[in-house]
Each structure stands twice: as structure tokens, then as C-alpha cells.
Amino acid sequence: MELEEHDAGTYVALAPAGRLDLASAPRVKARIDDLARNGRARVVVDLGAVDHVDSSGLGALIAGLKATRQAGGGLRIARVGEQVRAVLKLTNLDRILVPYDSVEEAGRDW
After folding, report:
1. Residue 110 has pLDDT above 90, yes or no
2. DSSP state of 88
3. pLDDT at 1 exceeding the cut of 90
4. In whole angstroms, what is the distance from residue 18 CA to residue 42 CA?
């Protein structure tokens, strides 16, 4: 899994690619934790290139949300594909992790 990162000033955008699953979720979670610890607690996760998410991937996003909130920020998701959207809806996590249409929209008003 690739994990691109872009510093947008008021937030950091992370863009994983491929599957967000048991193998890749720890890397995403660790990077979000590292950002939160280092004062970059506003994170947008761009899921546009993620074609599959499982419970481990969801767990990484929820853990990231908790870590960023505890550090005074938050975590938002953007560009969510059909499979990811279906999993979020099925688990009711779309109420906690509200998908935004674009990274820029997710990063506004922070």
C-alpha cells in the first residue's frame, strides 16, 4: 500500500492507495498518531484510491479520529468509493466519519 502525504497548511492530507486492511491499517494508524503527537492533529484521509476497506481499516480510521480529537483536532474522510461507502453505511460509521466529496471541502472551516 502506498501512503502519500500533503501538508495543506491548516491540515494534513493522507492518501492511502489500494486496500486498507489488516496488512496496511497499522501503517495508516501509526502515521495519524505521529501527526497528532507532533501538533498536526487536523487530518483529512483521501480515500479516492482505496478500493477495499475491512474492519482493520475502519479500526485505524476510528483510532485516528480518537487520537486527533484528543490532540485538539479531528479526522475527516474524503473521496469515498462505493465499497468503502457501503461498509461505512452498513456499520453506521458514516454518522461518525461523514464522507466529503473532496479533500478541499473536508479541510475547510478548520
Report:
1. no
2. H
3. no
4. 23
Q: Which three cell numbers stand for residue 15?
A: 492518501
Sequence-ordered list of residues with C-beta below 8 angstroms from that of 45, at least 6 positions apart, any chain = 13, 14, 15, 16, 28, 32, 61, 64, 75, 76, 77, 78
Domains of the chain, by residue range, sit at 2-107
Per CATH, the architecture of 2-107 is what? 2-Layer Sandwich (3.30)
pLDDT digits 0-9 by tens, 32-64: 999 999 999 999 999 999 999 999 999 999 999
Distance of CA 12 to the CA centre of its chain: 10
Dihedral sign (CA 14, 101, 52, 26): positive
